[in-house]
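Long-time lurker. I teach an intro course on protein structure, and each term I like to show students one example going from raw sequence to a predicted 3D structure in token notation. This year I'd like something fresh instead of my usual example. Would anyone be willing to generate the tokens for the chain below so I can use it in lecture? Attribution to the forum is fine with me.
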Amino acid sequence: MAWRIRDRATFEALRRSPHRARRGPVTVSYVGTGDGPARVAYAVGRRVGGAVVRNRVRRRLRAIVAELEATVPGAYLLAVGPDSAAVRYPDLKQQVTDAMAAASRRGR
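-- Reply from a regular --
Happy to contribute to a lecture. Here you go:
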């Protein structure tokens, strides 16, 4: 399982990072942090829906990242828009995969 980002320095680096990619309702920011495991933070705002909907979207994102973690080293911030709750899982997985790959390519 990917590590959660908890330190303020990494969040600040992700906020300032020019390495971003957007695919559908998914926006990914990337910061290269060496060879360690993937470190991920999730931003699921209230515009996505109520608490139940937001938690469901967050669980889906975690499941997607758990499948990808071996192939995506670095630190990522996954932010989703309001339409993410209506996207089917395979489509959301493809959008997250594409956005993470594009953001990390820009960061190299």
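Some talking points for your students: Residues 3-106 form a domain with the Ribosomal Protein S5; domain 2 fold (CATH 3.30.230.10). The helical segments are 8-16, 51-68, 89-106.
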